[in-house]
Design goal:
With about 190 residues, the protein is mainly α. Helices cover about 85% and strands about 0% of the residues.
Amino acid sequence: TWWVYFWLSSYFFYTPVVLTAKEKEISVWNWNMNDLLRSFFMLSIHLLACYVLLYFLRPKFLQQQKYFSFTAGILLLFGFLFAAGYFISTFIFPLIDKSFIPNFDRARKNVVWASADRGLLSAIKIMVVALVIKSLKYWWIKQKEQEKLEREKLNAELQLLKAQIRPDFLFSTLDNICQYAESSSTKTPVMLIQ
């Protein structure tokens, strides 16, 4: 879903709306494949960042309540995302453009801002959504574990009570006392006390 969103935003924001005569010679298929491949490279960086956040930073620092280390890790991750976005925008995207759209140079104004936008700002969106989903899933699992422990505790207490009472033993004892009481035995008061 994120890839489709990223591809569409790349397609609509970076594909020229008013085509020149030179651009009209380029097929729609080339524009689409070009933008699809560009979005794939950016998405791979976003996925890597999400996995680092979810499976390294979150369990190692956030769940252990080491907030300073978590913040430092996030800042390092942001630095990596910016650098990776700049590298891809500067070196990879021109190669992709030349392979699908020959003899056409996209206007590359402000590569720094474009790499920050695609690499860092887009990654923050997906990382926040992924972190919220993972945190909700973690909370849900903890709730289920807590409910399971409470059920097991109640079940253990019930089993302990059942083991203490032993209804068949109690019934047979009361039956014996009843028989002694009917025969006016002197053992009846002693048996009732016991």
